[in-house]
Give the backbone structure.
Amino acid sequence: MTTATKDQVQERVISALVEFGEEPENVKPDSRFEDLDIDSLDLVELAQVIEDEYGIEVTDADMDKIATVQDVVDFVAERQS
Amino acid sequence: MTRRVAITGIGAVTPLGVGVEALHERWAAGESGIEDGLGRCSDFEPTGHLSRRQVRRTDRFTQLALVAAGEAISQAGLDEAPYDRTELGSVMGTGIGGLSTIESEHIILREKGQRAVSPHCVPQMMANSAAGALAIEHDLRGQCFGTVSACAAGAHAVGTAARMVQHGDAVACVAGGSEAAITDLATAAFAEMGATSPTGISRPFDRRRDGFVMGEGAGVMVLEDAETAELRGAEILGYLTGYGATADAHHMTAPDPEGDGAARAIRKALSDAEIEPGQVAYVNAHGTSTPLNDRSETEALKTALGERAAAIPTSSTKSAIGHLLGAAGAVEAVATLQALRARTAPPTLNYEEPDEGLDLDYVTEGARELDLNGHPAVGISNSFGFGGHNVVLCMEAAA
């Protein structure tokens, strides 16, 4: 599994949220999930996407600290380094 | 406290198309929605009616329910009605629930393991998720639950909702049934138990009938306290006047050959509606096209209605759309009301060869005008389910 750049991760996270049903224009790097139409089940699915794509294990405790798109990007970068 | 129950909205998605007009008009014209031995809602494209988010988070049975309910609620004007939302109910029947979700997620589990199973699997597969989805979508904050009684579930939902309104537990209740079970497993399972037609033809009451044709779809009614419905100026389409429900207590899948439980349900519905057999102008039969049902149902009609049974036009919606399982009772309640409103008995399709003892008036030569002679248009709709459930709904079209 190759290491993804921050831009690639950001793009993947945004595309996942859009796939979940959020409108593309609403999703920005600093968007907070609680302000989007994204709930706890969507976040579990997002964790599954991260695990699948980047081979990183994401625990519930990890997800508790993640509130924005940028948080996800930073989390993936930190675990990949 | 007993209130009169008005029907102020109806909706349907069936193999004949999206909407109640397609169901009635096409069936009355003798058209069939069955293709290649299946009654699929091939005109139904969920993304044409629901948001991407709704589509992604719901099983097809809930999608069908949302669209049928949308039609009924819009007609009733229930979203805008001046009611306390805590007095609005949602009761939806289904035979199985989110079966395609269960099947596809089970494959994912076996192939990829637990961590790959969708977190949306449970809310999608639950048999009560259609009822819950309607409550969320239309802000219905009163009683909300699913009914589960196989092919009687949709009729149980409508009957239960009628009681709720009659007794003042709800001022209005959205009620119906939905099913989307044309999946690999269900198709195989029904075939292996000998319930479905190997020839793929739905021909109720015909000597050559050899099983039912599986269908999918949803039917929904808005039932409402007639007095408050009138006060708010809602158009009243008709009334749900009687409800009878019994059990065969005989066999899990075979009906009582004498039709005793079914006959008792018919009598109860008539008694609840305070009418005599002579006042019934139309019977919407369960009429599955299985050898056992059509015979025992005919017996039940004769037992319950006496000599009058042979004179009442009796037709099967399943001849045109197949068997919608948990949705059937609700879709057929809608079809019955439409027939009564149009003063027309739609036909039993594909009937050619009479069977000994099956000698009622099955309306086999095309749609026929109901002979009302100035009397109200009153009809009954029969629904029977595996488990031995019998439900009969009695309706009267508005004058």
Observations:
- Chain B touches chain A through twelve residues (CB under 8 Å).
- Chain B has a mean pLDDT of 97.
- DSSP finds 13 helices and 13 strands in chain B.
- The two ends of chain B are 25 Å apart (CA to CA).
